[in-house]
Amino acid sequence: GGPQGAQCPCMPPALLSPPDAEKTPGYWNKGARRRLELALALQPAAQRAKNIILFVGDGMGLSTMSAARIYKGQLSGGSGEESILAMETFPHMALAKVSGAVPGGTVLLPLPEIPLGPSCFQTYTIDRQVPDSAGTGTAYLCGVKANAKTLGLSAAAVYGKCRTTFGNEVDSILHRARLAGKSVGIVTTTRVQHASPGAAYAHSASRSWYADANMPKEALRDGCTDIAYQLVHNTDINVILGGGRMYMTPKWTPDPEYPEDPDQNGTRRDGRDLIAEWLSAKQGARYVWDKKGLDAVKDDSVSHLMGLFEPKDMRYELNRNTSTDPSIVEMTEKAIRILRRNPNGFFLFVEVGHIPHAGGRIDHGHHSGRAKQALMEAVMLDRAVARAGELTSPSDTLTVVTADHSHVFTFGGNTPRGNSIFGLAPKKAKDKRAYTSILYGNGPGYSIRDGGRPAASLPAAEDRDYRQQAAVPLEMETHSGEDVVMLAQGPMAHLFHGVQEQHYIAHAMAYAACLEPYATEPGCRAARRASHGSQCSPQPLLALLALCMAALVVGG
């Protein structure tokens, strides 16, 4: 192998000795006491939520979060391990099962007198031990477990069978929030017709029915519609930001950004221009397709905004053209500034994924075995969480961060403090060859050369498109079935506790915001009065009237 000094200059060298302060017991005792005092002061915020923001890191399992935390710290010039993600400052935590079941499928919302502990969420689908993004999206957005590859349908629906759609539709919390008078939005780095955002508005027996051109003739004949069509016609969504232009326009329609590339043309066979239909149906609506157009939109000038920035999925953050494509942080900020004008509040769904053509861009990065791409997407999601916190208040906004599933991604190898998260383990393997700290259980990183595994080396392992080695050869790396974390702050955040089924997420959010089926629960009437009162509160007028009456009495 080459010399150890060949580390990428953008990463700090391994920290050979910890800071002097860390060597004293007082350092750790003081820090623990401070955290203990914060824990003792923590009280449940029992008021109802006016706004809800749900952040989903597609494929962002615990190992991805831990590695992203280190990467974030190293990007800032630190050793990384001591770094803290913005989402990790949230006071309430739970785990979601991606595999397992509750007897009878009952959702039990905790009563105030029941002590709430940490929580875990289980992400399996009805028919799969290890889930996909469609089944999980239906769970955490619609509140029911479903079959893999189906969107917005109960498990009575069968994948790919159009006729099983009808009568088995389930409504998402986004749809219910809109019916309750809130503004709603979707922000994603994937195509907006992708499985995760699609579960917020579509009812489809196949997650792959992006446009009518992607549907079998039998499904069209039986009356099913594609996901792009449903995006425009199912729910009145105020803000739609992501990729997916080609599914919205007629076949052969040139793409505005890539007019010379026929592979980016529109794909619709029915001749419909869904963007034009959406614009004509919404008063005060705007459509943009690049960052310049998004930046030009005045927050107070539009009621509806659609921004589609790529023909399919948006680019990885490390590949993004910062002059033409907005970041997830910029899209999130624009959405919040528009949605928060509604005095009744809003619901916003924000997704960052990790792999090409399967999930969000975190999901995409992992599926392709490119850990650096995946971890940068996770860091960007955390930056969006931080920016959302600056634009909202935990007094009236419930913010939830979770993942739909995890990946067979890990890092280890007894690496020293401060080692680049993408660096090499300090000792060679039994085959006398170097290996990276990050490895995959399966995927395209599997390789055999000259009868053995090729040695990993620097600086190649630091490249953004470097594929970490995998144990089992697959065209694409797979999801994993372990539980995923849920982090929450704001009104009713204490409902996120313990080990839960993933569909509980939608119920806890609906309960917190007094949405169906919890709209008549105790406290909801007062919450609605307070929300409407924010438009034109009668309290100042009543106070003025009382003063006038008192003056008349004294004067008399």
TrEMBL record:
Binding site for Zn(2+): 58, 363, 367, 404-405, 479
Localization in the cell: Cell membrane
Cofactor comment: Binds 2 Zn(2+) ions.
Catalytic activity: a phosphate monoester + H2O = an alcohol + phosphate
Span list, region Disordered: 1-26
Single GO molecular function: metal ion binding
Cofactors (names): Zn(2+); Mg(2+)
Pfam families per the UniProt record, alphabetical: Alk_phosphatase (PF00245)
Residue positions binding Mg(2+): 58, 194, 196, 351
Assigned keywords, A-Z: Cell membrane, Glycoprotein, GPI-anchor, Hydrolase, Lipoprotein, Magnesium, Membrane, Metal-binding, Zinc
Enzyme class per UniProt: hydrolase
Cellular component per GO, a single term: plasma membrane
Primary residence: membrane
Signal peptide: none
Active site, UniProt feature: 133 (phosphoserine intermediate)
InterPro entries: Alkaline_phosphatase, Alkaline_phosphatase_AS, Alkaline_phosphatase_core_sf
EC numbers: 3.1.3.1
Membrane topology: Lipid-anchor; GPI-anchor
Subunit architecture: Homodimer.
Family the entry assigns: Belongs to the alkaline phosphatase family.
PANTHER family documented for this protein: ALKALINE PHOSPHATASE (PTHR11596)
Name of protein: Alkaline phosphatase
Organism: Atrichornis clamosus
Lineage per the UniProt record: Eukaryota, Metazoa, Chordata, Craniata, Vertebrata
